[in-house]
Amino acid sequence: MQKKVLVTLALASLGFNALSSDFQSYWLAGVRVHWTPFNWGTTGRDQELLALEREVVATNEAAFARSLARQAQPTLATIARLDSTLALDERIIALREQVVREARAQLAESVITAATYTDKSTDLLVARLRRVQHRVALDQARATLLNTLGVEVR
């Protein structure tokens, strides 16, 4: 409840008395009160308004979190796929290295030609290049995920 009280006092003054033919001094005092009854209950309404605003903020926060989760899902799937691909790449490279060792021994014994040995060495290099490509793609996917979540990428 908001009340404003203003007090006005006027000191002695001369004025004309309408009931008499002469001037007389008089004192004037007054009190002026300003009170707006329409402010009753505003604190209750303000508290209700704040509670509603808190609910709106909580709802917006939950919607934002769900949106982030939806945006992160494809990137998380890509990261999982690239992790398994890198494990396969390691296995492929190990097998290709074994093939190249055997081809080197066969070349030394003149069982295969140099062109065949070169093909097998090229296959090993291609497998190593694919592993590097997959590592770069994995790092890019991780950076994209961090960017989506708003975390600084280092």
Choose one word for the global shape.
rod-shaped
- The beta-strand count equals 2
Order of helices and strands: EEHH
Number of domains: 2
Mean pLDDT, all residues: 84
Strand order of the largest sheet: 1-2
Q: Could you walk me through the main structural features you see in this protein, from its secondary elements to its overall organization?
A:
This protein is α+β, with helices and mostly antiparallel strands. It folds into 2 domains: 3-38, no CATH class; 39-149. It has helices at residues 42-108, 114-149, and strands at residues 3-16, 23-35. Strands 1-2 form a two-stranded antiparallel sheet. A hairpin with a 6-residue loop joins strand 1 and strand 2 (23-35). Helix 1 (42-108) packs antiparallel against helix 2 (114-149). The longest helix is centred in the middle third of the chain and has 67 residues, at 42-108. The protein is rod-shaped and about 150 Å long.
Protein topology:
Layout: E1 3-16, E2 23-35, H1 42-108, H2 114-149
Task: Write a brief structural summary.
With 154 residues, the protein is an alpha+beta fold. It has 2 helices and 2 strands, in the order ββαα. The chain folds into 2 domains: 3-38, no CATH class; 39-149.
Q: Which tags fit this structure?
A:
rod-shaped, 154 residues, 2 strands, 2 domains, two-stranded antiparallel ribbon, disordered N terminus
